[in-house]
Every structure is written in structure tokens, then in C-alpha cells.
From TrEMBL:
PANTHER family: ARAC-FAMILY TRANSCRIPTIONAL REGULATOR, TRANSCRIPTIONAL REGULATORY PROTEIN. It comes from the Bacteria. The lineage of its organism: Bacteria, Pseudomonadati, Pseudomonadota, Gammaproteobacteria, Oceanospirillales. InterPro entries: AraC-bd (IPR003313), Cupin_HpaA-like_N (IPR047264), Homeodomain-like_sf (IPR009057), HTH-like (IPR037923), HTH_AraC (IPR018060). This is AraC family transcriptional regulator. Keywords: DNA-binding, Transcription, Transcription regulation. Residues 197-295 form the HTH araC/xylS-type domain.
Amino acid sequence: MKTATTTHVPVFKLYGETQHWPTPDLLHCESIPERSRLHDWRIRPHRHVDLVHILFISHGSLELELEGAKQRLEGAVTIIVPAMAIHGFHFSPDIVGHIITLAKPLAEHLNELMGESSALRKADFVRLNQPVNTQRIATLIDQIDQEYRQPAPGRNRLLEALVQALVVELSRLTAYPDKPAKRHGPRQHDKGRMHLENFQALIEAHYREQPSIEQLAEQIGVSSAHLNLLCRQLAGHSALQLLHERLMLEAKRQLTYTNMTIGEVSDSLGFSEPAYFTRFFKRNTTLSPRDFRLRQTAVNESTK
């Protein structure tokens, strides 16, 4: 049976939905039943342009579709889904486990720390046949889940440390799996996907300078019109929208987690004046930076 081409696979923001990233965090953690039961336990094949999934399942079964290959898995297993990898799940109703979603900037930071051995670089799954491996992963997942749900001083630093430890453990497992199994690496990227990845890397390196799309396209070696076409086909947004999304993520983080003034945030993100930054922020969120900060402060106070 002919499989769907990449351009026909939906691009989602978060685990089968089209909403924007729910918080300014670069990490999202939830139990698998929390969301999958809302979709009758089935998440149809899709991909994310800028998110990486880590799934840990301790009990139950699922049918996994990963980069065109299908596999039935039972018991303790970990699954890695990098950005752009096509994936779908059909969970059993008794499934027990968690899904941790990393925004691409955090995933890229972890990849830099781990080098070529990073488990986050390829689509893969590993069956956890050794109880000691299962317990080590389960402990880290539980700590991440608890810290994510109960904000406390130093939360971001601890979450990053815990996720880094998790990636180290997963990288060991993918390098030396409990039991040899058929691996499911990603398909060879075509030129379009490579151009998109290069574009995203340039955004991450230079978004504070607010370069023009023409400048970024020239660095990649394509025209701005071709880059826009690739972004719309593969990411579901224009090139400029992808740049603006990265600016918005950083703006939200700084407004939530720092004491920087609106003017200081504006300057740090390359805006010529705070008024322009305010218009940009309000156009993308319907809230002014000040109102967004007040709302986030109220939310944080309510969780204490």
C-alpha cells in the first residue's frame, strides 16, 4: 500500500493538536492517558517541525508507526521522536506512561552537550528488558513530572538537569540496547527538509538580530520565495512566521521568568523601540507584554 508523502502528513504543534505551545517553558510533560483518551487512544500519523518527543511506557501496549514502519510494543519501552519524524500511536486503554515534549531549542542544546551520541538525533525505540534500566528511566521521568507540575525556586535549572540526565540514560540505551532489535532510523532527508533544518538553525543563532528572510535564504543558498514555499509545505507556516514564533517564545520566557523591564526585553530581542515590540507582541497574543506578565504572575501565584 502506498504511504502518504511527507507533504500530506499533518504538522501539529503539540501531540496531535494545532494549538500553540501551551506555556513559555521549553519542556512539556504529561501522562499519556491525559491526552490520548481524548482521542480514543489513537494519535494519527503526523509530524512536528520544532518539537521532540520522549515517550516512556511502563505498562500496556501500543501500535507504533515511526517513519513509515509499524511495530507493536508491549511492556516497558522508550520511544524517541525527533523533529520532522512522522509518527503515530494507537495505545491500549490500560496504558501507563508519560510523554515529555522538548521545544527544538532545548533539544538542540542537549544534542550539543551529548554530541553525535545523543539519543534525540534519530527516531528510535528501545525495549527495556532489564529491570535496572526500567527503574532508572522511571525514576527520572517521575522526578521530571513532579517538578513540572509543582513550580518551585530553581525549577528551570532542575528540569534541565533532569532532562539532561534522562538523555544521557537514553543515549546509553540506544547505543547499547538490552536486546538487539530492528532499528527504525529516519528516512534520508531530501534537500527540502535539509534546507528547512538549516533555516531553523540560522533562526536559533540569529533571531535576536531579526535578520531578513532574504538574508537567511541567501545563507542557505536558495531564493526567499523557495524558502517560503518549503516552510509552508513542511512546517505549515511562512519563513517569517517561524522567525516570529521563535521571537515570541523568547519574549514570553523573559516576561515570565525574569525581572527585565519591557524596554529591556524589547532591546534584547532586537526591536528598535518598546512601542514596536508591544505592537508585535499584542498582534501575536492579543495581550500587551504588561498584561501577559500580570497574567503569568497570577498563574504562578495560584500554583504556590
